[in-house]
Amino acid sequence: MNLKIAVLPGDGIGPEVILQAKKALYAIGEVYNHEFVFEEALMGAVAIDKTGNPLPEQTLNLCLNTDAVLLGAIGDPKYDNNPNAKVRPEQGLLKLRKELGLFANIRPIKPYKALIESSPLKREIIEGADFTIFRELTGGAYFGTKTLNEEGTHASDLCEYSEEEITRIAHLAFKSAQKRRKKLTMVDKANVLETSRLWRKVVQKVSEDYPDVKLDFLFVDNAAMQLILNPKQFDVILTENLFGDILSDEASVITGSIGLLPSVSLGEKNALFEPIHGSYPQAKGKNIANPIASILAAALLLEHFGLTKEAHVIYKAIEKAIEYKVVTVDLKPDSKFGTNEVGEFVSNFI
Amino acid sequence: MNLKIAVLPGDGIGPEVILQAKKALYAIGEVYNHEFVFEEALMGAVAIDKTGNPLPEQTLNLCLNTDAVLLGAIGDPKYDNNPNAKVRPEQGLLKLRKELGLFANIRPIKPYKALIESSPLKREIIEGADFTIFRELTGGAYFGTKTLNEEGTHASDLCEYSEEEITRIAHLAFKSAQKRRKKLTMVDKANVLETSRLWRKVVQKVSEDYPDVKLDFLFVDNAAMQLILNPKQFDVILTENLFGDILSDEASVITGSIGLLPSVSLGEKNALFEPIHGSYPQAKGKNIANPIASILAAALLLEHFGLTKEAHVIYKAIEKAIEYKVVTVDLKPDSKFGTNEVGEFVSNFI
Ligand SMILES: CC(C)[C@H](C(=O)O)[C@@H](O)C(=O)O
Ligand SMILES: CC(C)[C@H](C(=O)O)[C@@H](O)C(=O)O
């Protein structure tokens, strides 16, 4: 197979971890006779520094014209504590999601056997947990009109949703539930928000097409609690953009480290693969960042193009790295291995 | 002391648990010579059933003219799954918060020694955790304009905040931090939301009045993760309405049961005390609901009026109940004690 992949290393530890993902893909390409062509481009704080624009035109064009996008991480603290910054790295990511129409972000959550002890949760709580979060990614408060009055004393964010936006991701989520344990939990705040009530209504309607899937509803406050009390109750979780942002980071504790979780964002035509962790600027250049989430993002990319066997070789390699404790310090505080070594281990295993 | 207390038992298990809180207050009154006069009124689904209005005029007037409000719980599933219901129990609660000007909801989080094992989190993660969440309660998406178009295919919720709304709760939170470990963590989504950037700016400004308090910032997705990974890092958490709703329910897992957590909501003139759990309709009338959060809400009420000694007697009584395992099934699955027995134990101990 021939794939052209846009690579956006981004900020902080992004470039280091993405390098390992590329190494894994190269190795897969050699062994299984695929050609992966990588084209790098700027996005995020690095793009602002070099061009003034967090998503340069060139980057966007590249992404629109490749088979897939592989993203590192975005964000720099110099923008976070400056409420007056007019241009911010995250704008690049949000614009990319919007322009590529990546309306569904999908995050699988499942603890690794060998890492069960490194979760803050007790073994009996997480052992056997296995669910997927479907987060709507191009709507809600992320993209609604924002205002700040002239005096800078009053601000607003508008959260909006349409039936169409809800319907398309709901179908994806129900289809996924059909292939899994046939349970879908819609998370919202329908006792307070109008948009949540629309979600409930539309999802109920979509559910009629999937009579074999059991649908239930949880308020987001309760869901945030249930994720920790009893994560095994979940199969597929469906929710809006901001709730999905919060819940999927929270759910990462189940796996023992956010450094282990990849996600895929899907649109009608495009697909973007990334680790769910942030740019972790404190670790930049120190060879301590966990590359596993990025390598797993590459594996999700392979699966997306039907290269299931190849993806599984990567999963296997990562399981071995974990088993042999070739892992970074987030998983083993006294580990002697760094980003590079973990990446090398994985690509050598392939 | 003479106190006139409006009692709103509300829905589901509300009446059962509130009864135990009243018993505890009666006992305190007798032993320490205070007169507590309770006046009951309707709010929530019960109020809709009887009057068509989730917060009848009479209830509101009563609350405006008493020293404090003691609330059970609000909510009924028959409204939750009916996106077309025009009147909902929660509207009563939200209106009450608004009319009483209860802008700050304060939820202390601290595990009970005797219950450490009943948390889904490992002992070493939660032992020693002790923090308080300050949640803004009368602003944000809860109270902004809501729209639904005529065809019912497009909905919106507006999240708004003003400098003034942020300033007043920020002062409360900083003052509390000064009396504690002098650390305040502001939780927001300033990389995406305009209201969050306003929060950050205003809180930074207010912080200048409290140079002894260390201020830091966390994005809400990261905060949802950090609460579980390392809750001991927190002292005072300050956040807006919806984030506070999610995080404080999530944080309840640290204490082992949401049935143990009370909260106080403060305004300039009024104060409302309640358990943080919901109406738990499945348990209604079964004598299995945990009354401890409600009894603790009563203790917070006493503290609020300077009756510290009396409040501590209640804390002691509850510790004993937990120590002797006179607790409901949420804390001890094979427990033979119910709501009533736990309440009796506590009031007899006083
Ligand atoms: C960086 C930020 C804008 C982004 C988001 O909130 O969507 C991130 O947290 C994520 O989840 O991908
Ligand atoms: C019942 C509901 C409207 C309420 C809220 O969201 O504020 C509840 O969850 C709470 O936290 O008091």
Automatic annotation (TrEMBL), chains A, B:
UniProt xrefs under SMART domains: Iso_dh
Cross-referenced Pfam families: Iso_dh
Catalysed reaction, written as an equation: (2R,3S)-3-isopropylmalate + NAD(+) = 4-methyl-2-oxopentanoate + CO2 + NADH
Compartment(s): Cytoplasm
Family according to the record: Belongs to the isocitrate and isopropylmalate dehydrogenases family. LeuB type 1 subfamily.
Sequence positions that bind substrate: R97, R107, R135, D221
UniProt: Mg(2+) binding residues: D221, D245, D249
Gene Ontology molecular-function annotations: 3-isopropylmalate dehydrogenase activity; magnesium ion binding; NAD binding
Domain annotation Isopropylmalate dehydrogenase-like: ranges: 4-346
Phylogenetic classification of the source organism: Bacteria, Pseudomonadati, Bacteroidota, Flavobacteriia, Flavobacteriales
Pathway recorded for this protein: Amino-acid biosynthesis; L-leucine biosynthesis; L-leucine from 3-methyl-2-oxobutanoate: step 3/4
Protein's UniProt name: 3-isopropylmalate dehydrogenase
